[in-house]
Amino acid sequence: MTTAPVSVSIVIVSRHRPKALRRCLTGVEQLQYTPFEVIVVADPAGLAVARSLPFAAALKLVAFDEPNISAARNLGIAQAAAEVVAFIDDDAVPEPQWLRYLMAPATDPAVAAFTGFVRGRNGISFQYQARRLNAWGIAEALPLDPAAPTVLPAPATGAIKTEGTNMAFRRDVLLDLGGFDPAFHYFLDETDLNMRLARAGHATAIAPLAEVHHGFAANAMRNAKRVPQDLYDIGASWAVFQRKHIPQPDRAAHWAQRRQEDRQRLLRHLLSGGLEPRDVTRLLGRLDEGYAEGQTRVFGPQSVAQASEMFRAFPARKRKSSLIGTRPWRLSQDRAAAAKRVARGEIVTLVCLSPTLFYHRLSFQSEEGIWLQRGGIYGKSLRNTALFRRISRKTRVLIEAKRIACQRGLSDD
User: Fold this and answer.
1) Which of 213, 322, 380, 407 could disulfide-pair with 95, CB 3.0 to 4.6 Å?
2) How far apart are CA 413 and CA 411, in angstroms?
3) Assigned fold of 8-214
4) Residue 326: pLDDT band with limits 50, 70, 90
């Protein structure tokens, strides 16, 4: 007997990043999974972008223009009508097979939460893999099978970490727990939810092949180079977290450790030229101000409303996935040809190889909807491997195709 796929509501929160949101939604359109719906919680600029897309009528749009990620996500949950609610950031793009792998463990009713791996700005190196949270809310590496999903019971202390830009939860569990706590305006919002999930005894599944690409776009807290701009909400969130999850006798030591880690981070940016000495003093002052204010924030969790609308299935198309090997001098014409194939309903990856040792980079081009990988025939893609030597262009293209086959849907392996 075949089990029907679990329905999914994808929630995307966006504020002051309309270009990133367009790219994210263009990637979501290529998802190879049904049924799912898409809920966009955004400011006016984000809503305008969403309304300009060809599939705008399929989107559920929610207006929200306040700097509070938890409150925004709760508004998304309130509109979600599926069995599972998934979250992806507006500065991220999912691999086409993301939901297929993320939802594979959903056949186990004991699993309440799901998460996958996150690739960073170069599109190849991992930003986040499997992690757990210790009793102090600090993420630690969690060794597990890098390909097969693993179901992890709630630990006695701490929790299993779900990545904020690549996570999902059964909707009834979110309702029972009260959703996200709006006291966490920014930072630690999913960490708090993970701790509450663990205390309630819920299992979490980590699906490594459920991948998203995360860009770390600029916001009020950091610039485009990830240099901190303000640490107020970081300090406030740690104060709220302590009050909810850290015993009183441990809080001073916990805060001293957190503050020292942020100071070291600022000093690294100072040494690399991203900050000036006065910036370090100012940012540490803002961290302390936020921590003081967080001691008085009212926290939840809050009640989350039932879905006010019926499930609105996104018109996902079954797409063929193909890979084209090209060269720098031919890239322009092959890119134009790839864009036409995308318009006809394909998922297309261009691998442009030069006769060099250049490291590879992968990006999703939202204008054409193509995946573009560039680098040298002899250069690294995975950074922890040796440089390739004595290899032909054709063989290298085949190696890269095999590396991305599962996530891009080039094969069923």
Assistant:
1) 407
2) 6
3) Spore Coat Polysaccharide Biosynthesis Protein SpsA; Chain A (3.90.550)
4) very high
